[in-house]
Structures are given as C-alpha cells and as structure tokens.
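Per your request, structure below.
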C-alpha cells in the first residue's frame, strides 16, 4: 500500500475554489490545481485499472487528462442560472466499453468537502434506455430483487436518484415493484467520510465497494444487452 492519492491539500484546494470560483483566481492557481487535484486524480484512475479489470473487463479506467475517466473541471453553464465557471468537486467515471454508444451502466467516484461517495448503475438514462430497464423489471422481478435487494449490494449501497410521483405511463399503478418502476435513475450510492478519501487504502476501499455494486451493474448490463 503506497501513499494516499488524495490529501488534505486536495480538499483545501476545493474549498478555496468554492470560495473563489472565478477565472482569474483559477488561472493564478493553475499549478496548485494540477498538483493538488488533477495529478492525484489521474494517478488514482491509473492505479484503479487493475482492480477494475478484476471486477469486469468491460469497464475502463482511462487516465488521459482530456476525454478520460476524470471529468473536466469546467462547468457547462449554457443552460444554467449558476454561471460559476468551475466544478468544486472531483468526479471520476469508470465507463463501460459501450458507454459512448449506448447509455450503459458504470461506476463513479465523487470527492468534495463534506461529500464523498461511490456510485454504481445508471444516472439519467435516455427515454429508450429507461423503458428497457422498466420492462426488464416487469419481465424479471426476481432478478431485480436479487440484484438490488440482495445482501451483497445492500451491505454497501442504498438506491438513490430521482423518481416520478406516480407510475409511468404504460405500467400498472398497483405493480408490486411500482416504487422501482417510478425511478428515473437506477443507481446505488455508498457514502464515505472525507477522512476515508485521505487514507492510503482509499483505492482498495473503492474497489471493494465497486465489487459490492456488481450485482446491480451486472443486472443492468444484462437488461440492456451489453456484456458484463
């Protein structure tokens, strides 16, 4: 076990960025951005490749600084009232091989002062993908329950995300799984303490969490006809 990927300096930088979310401050502290955030995150991604492949060979830990697993720091403000130019968290997504072509499930690591978590599943799938997942629940309710209610998954994850207020059109309001059919996101979240992210074993902890999320991810892959 080596040195921690993320240190107090990482979270100090994110706090300072939140307090100074302006282009002039960001550019003046570009070196600190690289040393406290970008380089540790890319090292984490690179080191996560081997444990991720042991979970499934169809997911990618891509350490490229642009277009890889690390989300860019720049916010898309085109359709937002909040015009702050920079994200104040680290977002890392381990995408499925087919993630660029279909809305495939994946894994996600989020680091922010006071908010650290690992997620598994699909967030905001498009309408066609969402219908396939809902149809899969109707066709194989036992498989869904094994994946999302089984001890392996629930030992680390809680289902999260947005839901409709009533059953979606075309699905029975009295269906035994109506609460799941109402979901707009099929994602599990495992919350961690910021202290956990600063420990040397954080990568191993994330790998163990992703293994626990495998039943949900495997189920979603099967439902969407993509390999796990």
């Amino acid at each position: 076990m080596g040195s921690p990927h993320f240190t107090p300096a990482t979270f100090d930088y994110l706090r300072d960025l939140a307090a100074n979310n302006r282009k002039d401050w960001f550019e003046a502290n570009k070196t600190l951005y690289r040393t406290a955030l970008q380089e540790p995150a890319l090292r984490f991604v690179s080191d996560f490749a081997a444990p991720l492949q042991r979970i499934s060979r169809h997911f990618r830990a891509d350490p490229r600084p642009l277009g890889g697993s690390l989300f860019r720091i720049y916010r898309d403000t085109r359709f937002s009232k909040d015009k702050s130019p920079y994200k104040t968290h680290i977002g890392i997504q381990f995408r499925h091989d087919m993630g660029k072509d279909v809305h495939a499930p994946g894994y996600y690591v989020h680091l922010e002062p006071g908010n650290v978590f690992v997620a598994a599943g699909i967030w905001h799938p498009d309408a066609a993908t969402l219908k396939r997942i809902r149809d899969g629940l109707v066709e194989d309710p036992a498989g869904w329950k094994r994946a999302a209610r089984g001890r392996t998954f629930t030992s680390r994850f809680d289902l999260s995300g947005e839901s409709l207020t009533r059953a979606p059109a075309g699905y029975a309001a009295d269906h035994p799984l109506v609460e799941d059919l109402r979901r707009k996101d099929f994602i599990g979240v495992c919350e961690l303490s910021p202290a956990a992210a600063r420990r040397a074993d954080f990568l191993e902890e994330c790998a163990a969490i992703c293994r626990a999320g495998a039943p949900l991810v495997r189920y979603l892959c099967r439902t969407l006809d993509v390999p796990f």
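The two ends are 28 Å apart (CA to CA).

Regards,
D.
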